[in-house]
From TrEMBL:
<keyword id="KW-0808">Transferase</keyword>
<dbReference type="InterPro" id="IPR002052">
    <property type="entry name" value="DNA_methylase_N6_adenine_CS"/>
</dbReference>
<dbReference type="GO" id="GO:0008168">
    <property type="term" value="F:methyltransferase activity"/>
</dbReference>
<dbReference type="Pfam" id="PF22020">
    <property type="entry name" value="RlmL_1st"/>
</dbReference>
<dbReference type="InterPro" id="IPR004114">
    <property type="entry name" value="THUMP_dom"/>
</dbReference>
<dbReference type="InterPro" id="IPR029063">
    <property type="entry name" value="SAM-dependent_MTases_sf"/>
</dbReference>
<dbReference type="InterPro" id="IPR053943">
    <property type="entry name" value="RlmKL-like_Mtase_CS"/>
</dbReference>
<dbReference type="InterPro" id="IPR000241">
    <property type="entry name" value="RlmKL-like_Mtase"/>
</dbReference>
<keyword id="KW-0489">Methyltransferase</keyword>
<dbReference type="InterPro" id="IPR054170">
    <property type="entry name" value="RlmL_1st"/>
</dbReference>
<dbReference type="GO" id="GO:0032259">
    <property type="term" value="P:methylation"/>
</dbReference>
<keyword id="KW-0694">RNA-binding</keyword>
<feature type="domain" description="THUMP">
    <location>
        <begin position="45"/>
        <end position="155"/>
    </location>
</feature>
<dbReference type="Pfam" id="PF02926">
    <property type="entry name" value="THUMP"/>
</dbReference>
<protein>
    <submittedName>
        <fullName>Class I SAM-dependent RNA methyltransferase</fullName>
    </submittedName>
</protein>
<dbReference type="Pfam" id="PF01170">
    <property type="entry name" value="UPF0020"/>
</dbReference>
């Protein structure tokens, strides 16, 4: 198998966590950049990265990078890249693009130039004048930043946050699966400890935590664009999936509970847990946070309280944050991790966070407010039935 330059993209603020995930898969040559991690792998790495990366949005093949201040430079630089190494004669190969702080500001024009250049390159490789584009799909992207063009091919298809277990619609502004996984990983929650989400909504944090606890590959229940590519044969996908099945630890007991005041979203959470194969392992309740009383010692509250859009009333938002602060006062041995854009979270929690980390939930700038239990993150260590999650 050949050595391939790959790029895993992610929301801003998650790069270090994603780099840790990539290195944990065995790919040590990982370089962190804004919103992406570049690493070196092979064709099997394409399969494994798509199946396993919890905090990535996409896995891209890096075709090349060069300066492009003019359309001629963009055309010639693109044409010189080895497109036929990946794109077969019958492929569909649309071009997408974006531009930031670059002289070439017209994204549609850049997409057209890239498409034309790739067609010219493939004409030379395949000695033909026309391509029907009826075969597998290879989405190309030109990304311009400070006049540097990066050309990639997307191996993923639908974004990696679409795990395949969220079937029901009707939940406003759900937390993406990738962000939910990220805050669970940042919490360093251990599978032998209770976990509670008092604003669980559609159940994303509990489900992602369970998948981490049982070491379930997040992409195991979905398909990817590169599965249709002859250059990444089915045998490699079979090998990667067999590996993922073998690494599942579904004999570990889980104590994960989610609750929400909205019975409709609890129905969505139950359906999602069932689709994820976790219906028997997770508990969901219709319950306001003011009545929540999590049981057990040295547990972890991980939650994404309402921002105001759903409740629609600032006073109600303030009330639920105040109730959250009161709830945590009755959990002296627990740690709490709260993702929210509200600057008053620390006020309602009654003390400054031990640590804050800026994260973006979509376009909304948030902080992950981190409160550690006295005497250590999780108190006295019991027998650890699973692996600790990495702090990045």
């Amino acid at each position: 198998m050949s050595e391939i330059q790959l790029i895993a993209t992610c929301p801003m603020g998650l790069e270090a966590i994603l780099a840790r995930e990539i290195r944990d898969l065995g790919y040590e040559k990982a370089t962190v950049e804004n919103g992406r991690v570049t690493f070196v792998g092979d064709e099997l790495a394409i399969c494994r990265a798509n199946l396993w990366l919890r905090t990535a949005d996409r896995v891209l093949i890096k075709m090349g990078q060069f300066e492009a201040k003019t359309f001629d430079e963009l055309f010639e630089g693109t044409k010189a890249l080895p497109w036929s190494d990946w794109i077969p004669e019958d492929a569909e190969f649309p071009a997408e693009g974006r531009s930031y702080k670059s002289q070439l500001t017209s994204v549609p024009a850049c997409q057209g130039i890239v498409k034309k250049a790739v067609v010219e390159s493939l004409k030379q490789s395949y000695h033909r004048e026309w391509f029907d584009e009826t075969g597998p799909r290879y989405v190309m992207e030109v990304s311009l930043l400070n006049d540097i063009a990066t050309l990639t091919i997307d191996t993923t298809g639908a974004s990696l946050h679409k795990r395949g277990y969220r079937k029901m619609l009707g939940v406003d502004a759900p937390l993406k699966e990738t962000m939910a996984a990220a805050i669970v990983l940042l919490s360093r929650w251990r599978v032998d400890r209770p976990l509670y989400d008092p604003f669980c909504g559609s159940g994303t944090i509990p489900i992602e935590a369970a998948m981490i606890g049982w070491n379930i590959a997040p992409g195991q229940r979905r398909s990817f664009a590169a599965e249709a590519w002859p250059s990444v044969p089915a045998s490699l996908w079979d090998e990667a999936r067999d590996e993922a099945y073998d690494l599942v630890r579904d004999d570990v007991p889980l104590e994960i509970i989610g609750s929400d005041i909205d019975s409709g979203v609890i129905d969505v959470a139950l359906a999602a847990a069932k689709a994820a194969g976790l219906a028997r392992e997770l508990r969901f309740q219709v319950l306001p946070v003011a009545r929540a009383q999590p049981k057990g010692d040295y547990g972890c509250v991980i939650t994404n309280p309402p921002y105001g859009e759903r409740l629609g009333d600032k006073n109600e938002v303030d009330k639920v944050l105040r109730d959250l602060g009161i709830m945590t006062l009755h959990l002296p041995t627990w740690s709490s991790f709260i993702l929210n854009p509200n600057k008053q979270v620390e006020h309602y929690m009654g003390r400054p966070a031990d640590k804050k980390r800026k994260l973006y939930n979509g376009r909304i700038e948030c902080n992950l407010f981190q409160y550690f239990a006295p005497g250590g993150l999780y108190g006295p260590r019991r027998e650890n039935k699973g692996q600790d999650s990495p702090d990045a």
